[in-house]
């Protein structure tokens, strides 16, 4: 009998593992951690948009609130490299890319203006940041973004150069701490 069990397990290990994964995804308490893990595995480095296809941010007049709930205008970042990320605490791909974005922010916060923009309640966001030990600059939507920055998907991230050209636009989780991204940002400084 033990030999039959061993043979069964050897023949069907992948089916058993797949079944366990399906069960874990069905259970609400384990669904998000599994989704985050899978998103981290499949996240690739975002690539630059071809120069001929790049759009330009011409209108920086866009208002949102900062973490202190003071009104801020994107105009303050005109002439500087900018990274804008739309995200939410309930979004598994957003959570998956946060560790890389935190590292990127830590390394480049003096050279690039970062905006992590959400429509969630400040207390929910503050709790999430504290729990995960993130010190990202979070902002809250007050008005619609300029047309070239509109997106209905989370996460969506834009890397914009000092002249307003959108160098990278990425929807979905990405590896934001890759050598490629850091080299792109280094060129913008």
Explain what this protein looks like in three dimensions:
- The chain is an alpha/beta fold.
- It has two domains: 2-42, no CATH class; 51-188, Glutaredoxin, CATH 3.40.30.10.
- It contains five helices and seven strands.
- The chain has a seven-stranded mixed β-sheet, with no helix packed on it.
- Helix 1 (2-26) packs across helix 2 (28-42) and helix 2 crosses helix 3.
- The longest helix has 25 residues, at 2-26.
- It starts with a helix and ends with a helix.
- 26% of the residues are buried.
- The mean pLDDT is 89.
- InterPro entries: Redoxin, Thioredoxin-like_sf, Thioredoxin_domain, Thioredoxin_ResA/DsbE_sf.
- This is Thiol-disulfide isomerase or thioredoxin.
- GO terms for molecular function: isomerase activity; oxidoreductase activity.
Approximate helicity band = 40-55%
Largest sheet at a glance?
7 strands, mixed
Tally of extended strands?
Answer: 7
The Rg value, from CA coordinates, equals: 20 Å
What coarse outline follows from CA principal-axis ratios? elongated
Keywords: Isomerase, Membrane, Transmembrane, Transmembrane helix
Transmembrane segments: 12-30
Domain Thioredoxin: 46-189
Protein name: Thiol-disulfide isomerase or thioredoxin
